[in-house]
Structure formats: structure tokens, C-alpha cells
Amino acid sequence: MDSDGKPTSALVEDINGSSPTTSLAEKSHTHPLPPPHLHAPPSASFAARLEETPAQLLTELPAYEIERQLLRKLDWYLVPWLSLLYLLSFLDRTSIGNAKLYNLEKDLGITDHQYLIALTIFFISYAVFEAPSNVFLKRLRPSIWLSFTMLMWGIMMTVQGLVHDYGGLLTMRWFLGLFEAGLFPGVNYYLSCWYKRSEFGIRAAVFFSAATVSGAFGGLLAAAISNMEGVGGKPAWAWIFIIEGLATVLAGAASFWIIQDFPDTAKFLTEEERAFVIRRLQEDDQFSAAGESFKFSYVWAAVKDWKTWVGMLCYTGVDGPLYAFSLFTPSIINQLGYTATPANLLSVPVYVWACILTCGVGWLADRRQTRAYFNLIFLTVGAAGYIILIASRNPALSYFAVYLAASGIYPLIPNTVAFVSNNTEGSYKRSVVLAMVIGFGNLNGAVSSNIYRAQDTPWYRLGHIIVLVYICIGFISTVVMMIGLKRENAARERGEKDEVIEGERPVGEKAVGDAKNGVYETVEDAKRDKGDQWSGYRYVI
């Protein structure tokens, strides 16, 4: 009970618009949770705080108000800066599409095929190093790892503006992908360590919406920087890379002091607030909220889970189209009859629309506590956009279809990440699953960055057809995930997945549950060992 006599579970329901867990999970919460192993050894007082319920931690205000104020504090300290970092990340990787319009190929003496290879090589290093990067983030702390990688990719971006030939461009694109690899999967995992499942979607959406802002801002910035043609003896495209790279270096250096680590060590929170954050996550069935020691079995659990592999296909269905869209939107608009600067400027309202829709879908999906249905709706909208692009020869209609295409891509990146994250429990398992899902999706950027060929201008029908195939993959895999999760939840409701809990069985009574699902001394042992495979855990559809 809180100070107003309101149970904590009811407070959580008031905040999120739905009950926090299922009946079996609620039953388990009547047992006090012991403090798990922390990222750093807890003080005696902090460990004692973890034994208290959230309503006992801060009693000066009603628990609802405490939770609301704490969320606001977390949001202000975490989300804006991380969003800025992703804005710079996406700006740096996609600005080559803007630079192309200002004679990049001509000045470096490269062909259209070589340009496509330069796009492709980024995604190879980017995808390969995402999973290892998440492990480094977990072991070295976010404040160190994220800041280091950002500083390094800022340097690579700056040097990219100084290259004089094709080999130099390829080298910089490779290292740019290597150092950018850790940010997106790392931050999504990092945010999932701070927020409940019903709160994660909108934060992931705001974070990712920086990509849409970068699309709009990138076009405006490229148009402005084009006026620097010839300054210092350098072409406009070089200044695009140099200015954006230097901005990234400054942000990376500042991140050493700005980025926090995990809730149990957050300097901007009081001891009571740190314990409050951890306890509320544990009540949301995030049993590893206070940290867990590394075991290889957690990695293996991620690899053998069917949800990981279906999630990879779900994410591929939206991430493959993302890079095709973001890299080639200026060129597509350019081929509709607009010159370089107007083409960049006409891409701005498309990204503004995508930003608004991304945040709106994130908020609504959290409120409704469903992810899959939003994927299906907006994948259908995106498919309609690409069908129009394939069939139309009208520039105005094709430009309208670009908005539909953006609607089927941008909101679904964070929604799919939240879909996967919401259904994965265990700190290390979630970090590995997110890295695998996002890494595989980004590997498809190597494919989608090669589908808009010069010989297919001005309508790029082959590229649009390939993107449409990606969207179909996303739709089908989302349906498969929905069916699988619904069946699993139903089996747990029927008790088919119940474990045997020896320590809570009265002497002489027959054990409840099935030994094939595991035998544990307490419910808490089962939860910490099995994560989202625990019988009381319910998947979010």
C-alpha cells in the first residue's frame, strides 16, 4: 500500500492503463524479492532499500506522483542527449546521399557501381560489430563505451571529407560502420534497463525519431553547406563530411561526462530513487533489473530462442527498406524533375511527417500495450506507397507515395525493437537478442543500398519492387510472431509450463507443476534462472 492506501499494482495500472502482469505473475509478487547481484557492490543501506516496495521508499507523496516525477527525471536526463547522438549517427552515415548530389562521384572519379560499393561496405562492418559492441557496453559501462565509439566515428567522418580517391572513401566508410555499430543496439538495450515494458516504446520512438530529424536536417544542412563550394579549396561535399564529423567529435567528448551508466549507480538519482527504479522494474517482471553476473548460458538462451530468429525477420522487413529510403530519397526526388538543392529541400517535409508519426505510434502502442498490430497496419500503408511508386509515372503522385512509404518504415523501427525487447527477459539475454536482431537487419542494408541503380532512373522500379518484398517479409514474420506468442501465453494460462516449486509446497502435498519445466526451491529462483521462459511471464502481442 502507498500513503493513500492504494496498492502498488493498482498504481502501475493507473499509470499504464493496463494491469502489469498476469495472475500467476501477480501471485509470485507476494514474495519479497531479494536484492540480486548489482553492477557494483551495494552499500548496506542500498541493499536494505531494495527489500522495500516502491511505495515504502518515498512516502512524502502519493506513489502515483512519485512515479510520475521520477519518470520525468529519467526522461530529461537520458532521452534528449541519446537522441542527439543518434541524430548525429544517422546524419553521418546517410549524408553521403546528400553529398552525391554535389559532385562526389565526379570529383573522386568513381562510377555509380563504385559508389554503391562504398555504401555497402559500411553495412558489413556495421552489422558484424553490433553484437560484440553490446558485450563491450555491458562490460565497460555505457559512459565509457558509447563515448569512445562516438569520438572515433566522428574522427572517421571528418577524415572522409579529406579523401582524394576511391580507396580512401572505402576505408573511411568501413571504419565509420565499425565505430557506429554500437550506438543503436546499445542505446535500445540501455533504455530497456531503465523503463518498464509499457514505457519503453515511446522512449525508443523518440530516440529513433532523431533519424527522421536527421533526414530533414540533413537536407537543410546540405543545402546550406553547398554555399561553401570552393572554400579552402574544397568542394561542397567535403565540407558536408567535415562539419558533421567535427560536431560528432565534440558530442562524443562531452558524452564522457553526460551519459549515465545503470540505475543502481546513477549519480543524478538519490539512493531512494535508485532503489525505486529497480524495484518498479522487478515488479514489471524484469527480474534482472538490479544486474546479473555473466553466464554463457544467457548467450545460448538468446541464440536458441525461436523469438530471436523470427524477430530478426520482423526487423529485416522494416530495416532493409529504411536504408534504401534514407540513402536514396534525395536522388528519387531529384529524378522526378527537381535539381539538387530543391530535391534536398523537398525531402524535409517527408521526414517531418515521419518524425511526428514515429512518436505518435510509439505513444499509442505503449498505451494500448500492443506492438504487432501497429506493425501490420503501417506495413500495409508502406506497401501501398511502394505499389504507387512502381506503377505511377506522375511526379506529384509519386511524391505523395513517398509519404506513404515513410509511414510504413520509420514508426516501425522503434516499434519492432520494443516488440522484441518487451518479450525478452534477462539482462545479458536481452542485450544479445537486440544485437542479433538489429545486426541482422542492418546487414540487409548492404543489399538495400545497392538496389537503386543509375540505369533504372527516373522511376527506379526494380528498387521499389525489392523494398516491397522486404515489407512482405516483415508482414509475414510479424504474423508468425503473433501466433507463436499467443499460443505460448495460452499454454501458460493452462498451466502447461508450470515449474515445480519445492520450497513452497506444504509437507505431504503433491507437487504442483511439471518437473520437465524445471524444479526450483522458490519462485524467485525460477524467475531469475528462466527469464521470459518462466511460466508466470506473459508476452506482449
UniProtKB/TrEMBL annotation:
Keywords: Membrane, Transmembrane, Transmembrane helix, Transport. Residues 1-36 are annotated as: Disordered. InterPro entries: MFS, MFS_dom, MFS_trans_sf. GO terms for cellular component: membrane. The keyword Metal-binding does not apply. This is MFS general substrate transporter. Signal peptide: none annotated. The chain crosses the membrane at residues 76-96, 116-137, 144-162, 174-192, 204-225, 237-259, 312-333, 345-365, 372-391, 397-420, 432-452, 464-485. Pfam families: MFS_1. It is a multi-pass membrane protein. It comes from Dacryopinax primogenitus (strain DJM 731). One of its GO terms (molecular function) is transmembrane transporter activity. Its main location: membrane. It is found in: Membrane. Residues 16-25 have a biased composition (Polar residues). It comes from the Eukaryota. Residues 78-489 form the Major facilitator superfamily (MFS) profile domain.
